Amino acid sequence: MNPSLRSRGARSLRVIGLVALGLALNLALKTVHAAGAPVQSVGAMNFVDADTLVIADWRGGRLHALALPPAAPGTPAYFNLKDVSAAIAQTLHTQPEKLRFEDMAVRPGSELAYVTLSVEKGRGAVPTPALVSVDTAGHVGIVDLGKAPHESVAISNPPAADKRLWRDTPEATYTVTDMAYRDGKLYVAGLSNASFASTLRVYDFPFDGATTSASVEMYHPVHNQLETRAPIRKMVIADLNGEPTLVAAFTCSPLVTIPLRELKDGAHIAAKTIAEFGWGSAPVGMVMFDAGQGPMVLLTHSHKSADLMSVTDIADASTKPGVTTPIKWPAEPTLGLKSIYVPLAGLAHLAVQDKDFLVALRRNEASGAMELVSVRKGLFLRLSDFVNEYDFADFKYGANDPWRGAHRMLRTDEGYADLAPPKD
């Protein structure tokens, strides 16, 4: 055979091979997209890695794992967005009062906050689900839930559609209350339609159909009873005495531990109550981080100050028998593990932003606007939230005032560098 013909033939075969490979890849991508059921609602969410976001869909009775396009690494910076609701509403072509903020999470390594929202469409109409990203400069991006490639998995035995709480709240909205990921497993807290409704579901991830479901009971020191209905509201996974363990908080406000090895299909788990943090509040955020003093867990609440605990203290408490007696109301509202008071209150959602900062969604009490703001780990406050002696123009710092440096850092963080005390 003519060598040139042989060469052209080999090139043709390579081209055919590349075309076939491209068609196969395109088909694979279409197959991944087709595997995802339509997103009917959005609620709790969790990043399992930098490019994969799992969102709970209570209307559809599913979990959706969205494959996000790559994001550039972000440079640590402060969120100081005093009206993120207006920016999001403008991007979604609606009004701020029509937005319901469902959850917030930070994409690892990106300095991007992702927010799930329900957008009201009028009386009686089903809200439209939405997912947006927000950077520290306030730029809002939309993730098209109809086009984003995703895989979906059904949530077993969700609450019946006709069940209501407080007349107007579908019980199914609590099908998923929080999620945590570790070592190829997605742990999902929420409700089922069983008589013991408080449920922990575990999914192999990526989704392959393998799931387990266990019911949960715990002793509630405020109510003085064993409870099996109200779900876990927030949770993290920590290594306690060498054993991977779920640390979880319920409304009104017991803290419990559950070793992951107990989460077997069909099991009924008796969680160990290790603390009671007081009545009349619901957990809204639970994060774990190390700010230089060892691993810590921070639990924020809807109606009270936050509780900061070391993982070492949680581990020690988990070795003890646990709390089994009621609080002495009202003089002694807490029991068990003692936490550190942290002045973070009135938050809607909380997430770890990066190695230095936490980020919170919170409602401004005066304007009603939703804010997206950073909080420095270790200090756990925003100085600009308060007016005190240090803020008056004629105040002079003493030569050895230990707060001078902290105030300079916080004022700069929060956009008030011109008001920061000088270094000298």
What does this structure look like?
The strands form seven sheets. Strands 12, 13, 14, 15, 16 and 20 form a six-stranded mixed beta sheet that branches. This protein has a five-stranded antiparallel beta sheet with strand order 17-18-19-21-25, covered by helices on one side. Strands 1-2-3-9 form a four-stranded antiparallel beta sheet. A hairpin with a 3-residue loop joins strand 10 (164-165) and strand 11 (169-170). The chain has three domains: 34-154 and 357-373, no CATH class; 156-345, no CATH class; 392-419, no CATH class. Helix content is 14%, strand content 38%. Mean pLDDT is 92; it is low at 1-34. By secondary structure, it is mostly beta strands.
For the structure shown, list the relevant keywords:
424 residues, single chain, six-stranded mixed beta sheet, mainly beta
Please state the structural category.
mainly beta
Please give the domain count: 3
Q: Number of helical runs?
A: 4
Q: Any low-confidence stretches, pLDDT <50, length ≥5? A: 1-34
In helices, the fraction of residues equals 10-25%
Task: Give the strand content.
Answer: 35-45%
Mean residue pLDDT: 92
Rg to the nearest angstrom? 25 Å
Largest sheet: 6 strands, mixed
The geometry reads as globular
Separation, N- and C-terminal Cα atoms: 86 Å
Number of strands: 29
Give a topology summary.
Blueprint: H1 3-34, E1 45-49, E2 52-57, E3 62-67, E4 80-81, H2 84-91, E5 99-107, E6 112-119, E7 128-134, E8 140-143, E9 150-154, E10 164-165, E11 169-170, E12 178-182, E13 185-191, E14 198-204, E15 211-220, E16 225-227, E17 234-240, E18 243-249, E19 254-259, E20 268-270, E21 272-276, E22 283-290, E23 295-301, E24 306-310, H3 311-318, E25 335-336, E26 340-342, E27 347-352, E28 357-363, E29 370-376, H4 403-413
Parallel strand pairs: 15-20
Antiparallel strand pairs: 1-2, 2-3, 3-9, 4-29, 5-6, 6-7, 7-8, 10-11, 12-13, 13-14, 14-15, 15-16, 17-18, 18-19, 19-21, 21-25, 22-23, 23-24, 24-26, 27-28, 28-29
